[in-house]
Write a structure and sequence with these properties.
Blueprint: H1 4-13, E1 20-22, E2 25-27, H2 32-39, H3 43-46, H4 62-74, E3 77-80, H5 85-92, H6 98-101, E4 104-106, H7 111-119, E5 127-130, E6 133-136, H8 141-148
Helix pairs in contact: 1-2, 4-8
Length: 162
């Protein structure tokens, strides 16, 4: 049985929990019967959702929009995957339209994007990079502000990593 419908069903049913796939085997606390029970709830559960642009994001505030633009201008890159719940969580922290302005690089659509991410040494999603410095996992807006030296109004403090 293909695992993609099960993964989508689990992400839709429990979007804040991590679904583990190891060596092609779905790992669940209750075993394969739990996955079958999720799938048996109907086709609406197993229908894949759009993962970028189709989510219901909150509206961005000026600080979120400013931070997204600052990260883009300063050369930060946000590596992610369309199917990655943590990447969607990272985007939701910015709201819309700021999430669309993030310096996002998709790693899982096509050979060219996979090669770019492989050459950058991406091992986990999301990964943020600036020069040779990397941060893996979802970063709070405060962590991104501190790392990038963002200050509303465009001032970058001395000692920041712009």
């Amino acid at each position: 049985m293909p695992l993609a419908p099960i993964r989508f069903a689990l992400q839709r049913r429990w979007p804040h929990h991590l679904t583990l796939l190891l060596a092609g085997t779905l790992l669940l606390p209750a075993g394969p019967l739990a996955a079958a029970a999720v799938m048996a709830q109907g086709p609406e559960v197993a229908t894949p959702r759009p993962q970028s642009g189709g989510e219901n994001f909150a509206s961005s505030n000026p600080s979120q929009r400013g931070l997204a633009e600052h990260l883009r201008r300063q050369g930060y890159v946000f590596y992610g995957a369309w199917w990655c719940p943590a990447c969607q969580q990272q985007k939701r922290l910015f709201g819309q339209p700021a999430a669309q302005r993030l310096p996002y690089l998709e790693c899982e659509k096509g050979a060219a994007s996979q090669q770019r991410c492989s050459q950058a040494g991406i091992r986990a999603y999301p990964t943020w990079m600036k020069g040779g410095e990397r941060r893996e996992g979802v970063l709070t807006l405060e962590e991104l502000k501190s790392w990038s030296g963002y200050r509303p109004g465009g001032a970058t403090p001395a000692g920041a990593n712009p």
